[in-house]
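INFO batch 0412 | record 1 of 1 | parsing
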Amino acid sequence: MPPADLTLVDAPPALPLRPADGHKGTFGRVLIVGGSAAMLGAPVLAGTAALRAGSGLVQLALPAAMVPFALSITPELVSLPLGDRPNRAALAKAAGQADALVVGPGLGQSKVARARLKALMDAGKPAVLDADALNLIAAGGAWPGGDGGGVPAGRFVLTPHPGEMKRLAPLFGRNVVPTDDAGRLELAVAAARAFGGQVVLLKGKRTVVTDGRRAYVNRTGSSALAKAGTGDVLSGVIGSLLGQGMKPFDAAAAGAYLHGRAGEIAGGRLGDRSVLARDVIDALPAAIREREKAGLEGESGGGGEGGKG
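INFO prediction complete | emitting tokens
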């Protein structure tokens, strides 16, 4: 059973207004930090999704050798080439210019990756923490205190799939990730409260979004999203909405809805078996237009990247 003091939110919030006289600065600058020798696709998918979701400018911070390949996939991205050291000064400058951060897609778990994560968590910007950022936190030493350590509540959006949540759970005295709806909700709330009121988005069928006080259970999505890379797309969408000025809980709830709906649309076009993460990105415009036209009350199936890793 969910905690008695938890408020259940029935529908995601409306998307940010998009004034006709806006420019790229109006619609947010997002910095995405990730990429490693084996994981070029993850930050590129996140960055491309952020652009599709409405960001004015998206910068990828990734190893210098990967930059030409990343920009050949999505030339609308801009880059921050990184060397073999933590590059704290360059990251601090880029984070200072950004409206929101996405940290973790393809980041790796090296000492350099850990140092970059710590520097970005100290940057004071709203941030999505995904993938290897979560694995580094689970391994210890990357989170500033088990109770939030003075981090303002709601600054971060943590987006674990069940495998990542299983690694995080011992940090707050748990060792099992339930598969039933009530158990998943209760665990996500416990995680949000243990992390000092940060937003936790627990992926899966009926993805749970909670800050420990409120919870939204998403009902869009399908098995089309059970494919590598779709979690990176979700992180990019949420980061984009953060950069456009949405609060972290609202950005996570709206992002989960749009991501799930885009998966449904892509599955309708291609069949759920055949959808790739890039197809979900391509379906985002239709999901966004639908939501903008209808005002959306958010009813449908369930979904999300299952993730056993």
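INFO post-check: The chain has a mean pLDDT of 92.
INFO record closed
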